[in-house]
Amino acid sequence: MGKLLGLDHGDRRFGIALSDAGKVIATPRFVVEGEDALWEKLYSLAREEDIEAVVLGLPLNMDGTEGPRARKVIEFSRVLEEKTGLPVHFHDERLSSFEAENALCEAGVYGSRRKSRVDMVAAQIILQGYLNQLNEEPPVTGD
Q1: Does residue 113 surpass a pLDDT of 80?
Q2: What residue segments make up the domains of the chain, in order of their start?
Q3: What is the pLDDT of residues 2-48, one digit of tens each?
Q4: pLDDT-above-90 percentage for the chain
Q5: For residue 130, what are the CA distances in angstroms to 12, 37, 125, 134?
Q6: How far, in Å, CA of 123 to CA of 6, rounded?
Q7: What class is the 3-134 domain?
Q8: Is 139 exposed, middle or buried (0-12, 13-18, 19+ CB in 10 A)?
């Protein structure tokens, strides 16, 4: 059973998180600077970690609509699928960076150390949200 890779798409940096093989827990792993470095990292991770799919954060507007950033990420997902051969699933990333900042502050991480970790923690939050939905028990109906 393969793992899932969570990806937080930024303008300059990309946060990467990985799930466990059971697809229950997401762990922050890397921040990659620039798209060229991203492709190199994704190719090596796909081989080394048995990645079966990518969960990409979709930056929807607060009202749930797609704005320019979401359209950019959707276009990027097409390139991602083409270059890696991996299926891409989207997960709403609204407030993931805000949650990541708060989590790092609560952990006592400040300054440049926090800035360098926000993207991978955001990727973890995105991936964990997806995993939580994936593992949700369907409601029991009273038939």
Answers
A1: no
A2: 3-134
A3: 999 999 998 888 999 999 999 999 999 999 999 999 999 999 999 89
A4: 56
A5: 24, 25, 9, 6
A6: 5
A7: alpha beta
A8: exposed
Predicted confidence (pLDDT) at residue 110 exceeds the cutoff of 60: no
Q: How many C-alpha atoms does 40 have within 13 Å on its Cβ side? A: 8
Contact between 118 and 111 under an 8 Å Cβ cutoff? The reply is no
Radius of gyration of the chain (CA): 15
CB 24 within 8 Å of CB 11: no
Prediction pTM value:
0.83
H or E segment to which residue 82 belongs: helix 68-84
CB 117 within 8 A of CB 5: no
132: nearest Cα among 6, 2, 1: 6
